[in-house]
Amino acid sequence: MRYVKGMVQVRGTTYRIVRLAHGQYQVVRIMDDAVIGKFSSEPRFELFPAGVDVALFRQIAFAAIQGGKTSWVGRLTMA
């Protein structure tokens, strides 16, 4: 079941974070309603960007996790 977990803003653009399953999230760019990728926070942190820069997508995922928009709110370092 899909649940909107909230919004994050990165580099002046707003993204919607949608929970697909436990630890699995989809990122949607609000301005054009485009899915720009997915990420997982469990069992390990993984990124699956779709048509966007990996560094930008990493920032979006970290903003979602650190902002409490995911079920997992632990600390990650930006490596």
Topology diagram in text:
Elements: E1 3-10, E2 13-21, E3 24-29, E4 34-40, E5 46-49, H1 54-66
Antiparallel strand pairs: 1-2, 2-3, 3-4, 4-5
Structural description of this entry:
- The protein is α+β, with helices and mostly antiparallel strands and about 80 residues long.
- The chain has one domain.
- The protein contains one helix and five strands, in the order E-E-E-E-E-H.
- It has one helix at about 55-65, and strands at about 5-10, 15-20, 25-30, 35-40, 45-50.
- A hairpin with a 5-residue loop joins strand 4 (about 35-40) and strand 5.
- The termini are far apart.
Which tags fit this structure?
disordered C terminus, 5 strands, 79 residues, alpha+beta, five-stranded antiparallel beta sheet, single chain
Q: Which radius of gyration do the C-alpha atoms yield?
A: 11 Å
Going across the biggest sheet, name each strand in turn: 1-2-3-4-5
Summarize the main sheet. 5 strands, antiparallel
- Beta-strand content estimate: 35-45%
Discrete helix count:
1
Along the chain, the helix and strand elements come as EEEEEH
Q: What spatial form do the alpha-carbon principal axes imply?
A: globular
Which regions have little confidence, pLDDT < 50, spanning 5+ residues? 75-79
Q: How many β-strand runs?
A: 5
On the 0 to 100 scale, the average pLDDT is: 87
Q: How far is it from the N-terminal to the C-terminal residue, by CA?
A: 31 Å
Query: Helix/strand-derived class?
Result: alpha+beta
Provide the number of structural domains.
Answer: 1
Helix content: 10-25%
